[in-house]
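note to self — DONT lose this again. spent like an hour looking for the file last time. sequence + predicted structure for the chain T wanted, 447 res
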Amino acid sequence: MTNSERLNDVLRQVVARNPAEPEFHQAVSEVLHSLGPVIERRSDYADARIIERICEPERQVIFRVVWQDDRGQVQVNRGMRVQFNSALGPYKGGLRFHPSVNLGIIKFLGFEQIFKNALTGLGMGGGKGGSDFDPKGKSDAEVMRFCQSFMTELFRHIGDHTDVPAGDIGVGGREIGYLFGQYKRLVNAYESGVLTGKGVGWGGSLGRTEATGFGTVFFLSHVLGSRGRSLDGLTATVSGSGNVAIYAATKAQELGAKVVSLSDSSGSVHDPNGIDLALLHQVKEVERARISEYAARRPGATFMKGARPWSIPCDVALPCATQNELNENDARQLIANGCIAVVEGANMPSTLEAVSLLQQAGVSFGPAKAVNAGGVATSGLEMQQNAARQRWTFEQTIGRLEEIMRDIYETCAATADDFGAPDDLVLGANIAGFQRVADAMLAHGIV
């Protein structure tokens, strides 16, 4: 059997064993299609069936979450945690609360997290979790009761040396606070390293809120630097309007770019004069309003109902919303408009077809597992601070984040070059992350 046939056979096994999980199939396919060169060079990976093992989670936990709403009615949701791979350290990855959450989405996120965490070099395994609970429109009391019920089951499966969850879509500082409070009550101990994304006054890290968005732009700066360019004077489109999008827009404008879009599930804002960051923070972080409210208050801005921002002319695009938000048609539009770089601030926001088109057209492409690793990297720095009972300054944390993002970019670029595919950061990220995990798995034996 050739290496190509072996990899295709693994993918067929994954699809057969995990039916009706298209996002997970897509994530596995994207990685496997990069691994031919490394399997050719390292036959011991194939002999030990490392690829088959890395595609199968070490543990999957699914549980019922029962809670009572403000009307006294009992509600039932489903919670889950997929502990995918612990070869490099305790499982690490966020919790997502959103109606779209299902096992396939959590598995795709957990699979991506393995390689993302490996690229940081911080000794973290990969995992992910969440629930189909929707915090939007819920009172603080309802969110608290849900979080307490969720943690009443989850606490059995986590710990600072076992599995360290963090936030994701629908899980911000409020939710992390309620989850941590219930964990502390259940274990009768103050184990601050069990969750990251905590409040700064009780074990959190300065810079964690900004980290994923800032890291995305740091990575983009290195991508542009390889082409002799900088962000200064460029026009950027950004999708999403959560933490990642807000702080990607913030850092991009700090570095001289003009960010002209943001979005949410209802549509996109086009602001040709550049996003007003003060108004954005007021609308999204203080009022928690829809992004259309920004357009309503901002002279010159328009709201494009139901539309994505990729038709807006730009030099660089930063998809920072959710999976598969940038498709083949969007890629064609970006190429036609002269876009020179796309970097993924969200998890797998581009379809496989879109990525292929962008690369064929010579558009520099930064894959999510490398680009948005700044969030989990800073979670790792939060874990370091918790272990040492220290609190770093904002400048210390962001300075270390800049170093990590530079190292990730250089690792991806050097690996792509080593395997005969210069500038293919997708291949570089996949192979570099895979090798770090695979070498550890070989060292640990058949487990």
